[in-house]
Amino acid sequence: MDDSPLQVLTLPTAPYPDQRPGTSGLRKKVFVFQSKRNYLQNFVQSIYSSIDLLDRQGSTMVVGGDGRYFNQTAIEIIVQMAAANGVGRLVIGHHGIMSTPAVSCVIRKYKAIGGIVLTASHNPGGREGDFGIKFNTANGGPAQDAVTNRIFQISRTIEEYAICPELRVDLATLSKQKFDLENKFKPFTVEIVDSVESYANMLRNIFDFAALKELLSGENHIKIQLDAMHGVMGPYVKRILCEELGSPANSAINCVPLQDFGGQHPDPNLTYAADLVETMRGGQYDFGAAFDGDGDRNMILGKHGFFVNPSDSVAVIAANVFSIPYFQHTGVRGYARSMPTSAALDNVARATKIELYETPTGWKFFGNLMDAGKLSLCGEESFGTGADHIREKDGLWAVLAWLSILATRKQSVEDIIKDHWQTFGRNFFTKYDYEEVDLDAAIQMMEDLELMILEKAFMGQRFAVGEKLYQVEKADNFEYTDPVDGRICRNQGLRIIFTDGSRIIYRLSGTGSMGATVRVYIDSYEKDPDKIFRDPQASLTPGKR
After folding, report:
1. How far is CA 401 from CA 33, 389, 406, 455, in A?
2. N or C: which end of the chain has fewer CB within 10 A?
3. Which residues form the Alpha-D-phosphohexomutase alpha/beta/alpha domain (predicted)?
4. What pLDDT, on the 0 to 100 scale, is given for residue 24?
């Protein structure tokens, strides 16, 4: 056996012009990573090179992914390049799998300088699917624009990358593995860790597990159905909800992570989690939930398939926030939502006199507010909910938050939602996605629309829809000034705001792998008690066009 130090090589490469990270990192079709020479190596080297050498030397980083196709191949390259770039220790999930919320948790637990998350979230997997890679910084959250811009600039001029091509790590064994490298004084260490335990321990310190166990397995327990959609969340759901909190094993379905998510689209909404919706409609289960590929998104359902719109979900959690012991101890510093998300949360913030922040789309904006002690609870219309315990949205946290509310109030999901509408009014909310649109055409459309809504004649216009009259109060291209560091983010989406608080939003999305996605959001506010319950399920999941 050869015990000589592993060789560190510096190899030539050529840059690619298309490696600008979007709101959730770099996402491309798998074949792009596989067919373009050094495409992954270039981006990984750009990440490492964006970190100052003194900070990088001997540092700890975290690596994990949602288990989709190309995950393990990418991890092997990331490990080999980490060693060559002076990183001292990598903490990697067992089999290379770790949910995005768990990566954030582990970064913070180990005081790592950052982490690399391998996921395309709710996008399809498999050979013909998508792959993604993003960099999270030391706070556990997605890198801020200054960092991603630096990564992109490096990727445009990169000429070489460093790698230890002979380094092989065993992802299948929980262990601490050490490697001697040439010209390095200290060995390079890789720790393969239980992907669930650190995250589960964090949740034990947030929620009342005894009360949740009584709810799920006590004398008058409720019946639940949780769909992991063959994504990363399967092991977390099995360990925490079934083994620890006592829900029967058949409460959790599709819990084996698969490279292609079982040929399905791992997106927790009424369209792609249709089997769960159909099961819930049967009335056998009191509570249902689904998770996306990397575990940061969630969908909540009540008995008979009663759908909880994500915008309502975060508002209900806010209105019942002290059902969660964590907030009993920390208090509530502020609420936040992304700009396209309905204003349901605003109504709660106004009633409870708690500060409300409206941010651009992207969890990094919430993280900045959390780091400054200004934010406790936040959410996005795209099925993302979370709090300041980590710096990512957190699907399982949201499920346990809802179960905590059920345990406290001893009501059904539907009754809790209807009580909420009765108290705060209702935001009828829906969204339409126009996917894989020609980018130039989409930009032109947005420019033409902006010119139209910014004309003086547009202000005050009235539009009748059925019995309701909407009058334009304000129209703009949303601009955000960060209250923490003063940075300004312009051109974040077109808003048409009506006098009653209703809104129409248009924006281009940056999370797809091909073409542009035009998103249209409709947010109609109703406070008349006679009209609130006219159609209990009018707030629906995104429509695909």
Report:
1. 38, 13, 9, 44
2. N
3. 19-161, 198-303, 311-424
4. 83
> How many folded domains does the chain comprise?
3
Q: Does residue 159 share a domain with residue 87? A: yes
pLDDT at position 537? 61
How far is it, in rounded angstroms, from Cα 32 to Cα 69?
13
What is the side-by-side strand order in the sheet with 356-359? Answer: 356-359, 335-338, 377-380, 384-387
Which element (helix H / strand E) includes 37? none
Q: Which of 369, 390, 424 is the last residue of a domain?
A: 424
In this model, does residue 242 exceed pLDDT 70? yes
d(CA 227, CA 88): 38
d(CA 404, CA 424): 21
pLDDT digits over 407-456, tens only? 999 999 999 999 999 999 999 999 999 988 999 999 999 999 999 999 99
In this structure, is residue 2 part of a structural domain? Answer: no
**Which domain range does residue 325 map to?**
199-424
E strand spans, 180-327: 188-193, 224-227, 252-253, 287-291, 298-302, 307-308
* Catalytic residue list: 121
Q: How far is CA 430 from CA 305, 402, 539, in A?
A: 18, 22, 6
Is residue 4 situated within a structural domain? Answer: no
Identify the domain boundary among 141, 173, 194.
194
pLDDT in tens, 351-369: 999 999 999 998 999 999 9
Residue 10 pLDDT > 80: yes
Judgement on whether residues 173 and 82 belong to the same structural domain of the protein: yes
SS (H, E, C) 136-160: EECCCCECCHHHHHHHHHHHHHCCE
Rounded distance between C-alpha atoms, residue 293 and residue 271, angstroms: 15
Mean pLDDT, the chain, rounded, equals 95
- Helix, strand, coil in percent for the chain, rounding step 5: 35, 25, 40
Strands (E), 391-509: 426-437, 462-465, 468-477, 480-481, 488-489, 494-498, 503-509
Position with higher pLDDT, 138 vs 533: 138
How far is the C-alpha of 98 from the C-alpha of 399, rounded, in Å?
Answer: 18
What's residue 529's pLDDT?
87
Please indicate, yes or no, whether residues 344 and 272 belong to a single structural domain of this protein: yes
Q: Alpha-carbon dihedral of residues 472, 478, 482, 486, nearest 10 degrees?
A: -110
Say if 3 falls within a structural domain. no
DSSP string, 454-473: TSGGGTT-EEEETTEEEEEE
Q: What is the DSSP letter of 290?
A: E
Region 23-29: what's the mean pLDDT? 91
Closest to 400 in 3D by CA, of 333, 313, 329, 470: 313
Same-domain pairing of 247 and 356: yes
